[in-house]
């Protein structure tokens, strides 16, 4: 099915073509020439990525801090990535990424804190939310990953580090 673009001032005259058999959306130019296409999966992922979670619902129950450190992660399909994390807490971490993975993606991770860069701490998690573009909270695009499997001793190290960093800058009692 073809749908002409009529109300968008920037794209008036172009046409959107939906191919339900191949699940592809194609953009056609003013003269009917194909300008590009996207899979329905990609379009759905983009819509979900820009969806704002309910403002009143705070899902975090663990303390967290802003901290830059290295993280390596792998999807169940074997895709491997290396990036920088921008924060961590007892419940998970934030991975900076220009192309965040879809919500619900399971990850196997290793992260390394700045004070011990050669020591890699393993954990498993799931992408809980995404920030597709920089905003006032994260300052960079990426994804929030909730821990699903982390050894108690590693989780305790995370909590100890969070507690020590939260105390920095507070006046002595």
Description:
- The protein has two domains: 2-50, no CATH class; 64-167, Beta Barrel (Thrombin, subunit H).
- The strands form two sheets. The protein has a six-stranded antiparallel beta barrel with strand order 5-6-7-10-9-8. It has a four-stranded antiparallel β-sheet with strand order 1-2-3-4.
- The protein is an alpha+beta fold.
- It is built from two helices and ten strands; from the N terminus they run ββββαββββββα.
- It has helices spanning 40-50, 152-167; strands at 2-4, 15-19, 24-28, 34-39, 64-74, 80-89, 92-96, 106-112, 121-131, 142-149.
Keywords:
single chain, 173 residues, alpha+beta, Thrombin, subunit H, 2 domains, six-stranded antiparallel barrel, four-stranded antiparallel β-sheet
CATH architecture term of the largest domain: Beta Barrel
Structural domain tally: 2
Helix content: 10-25%
% residues in beta strands: 35-45%
SSE order in H/E notation?
A: EEEEHEEEEEEH
Helix/strand layout:
Layout: E1 2-4, E2 15-19, E3 24-28, E4 34-39, H1 40-50, E5 64-74, E6 80-89, E7 92-96, E8 106-112, E9 121-131, E10 142-149, H2 152-167
Antiparallel strand pairs: 1-2, 2-3, 3-4, 5-6, 5-8, 6-7, 7-10, 8-9, 9-10
In short:
The protein is of the alpha+beta class.
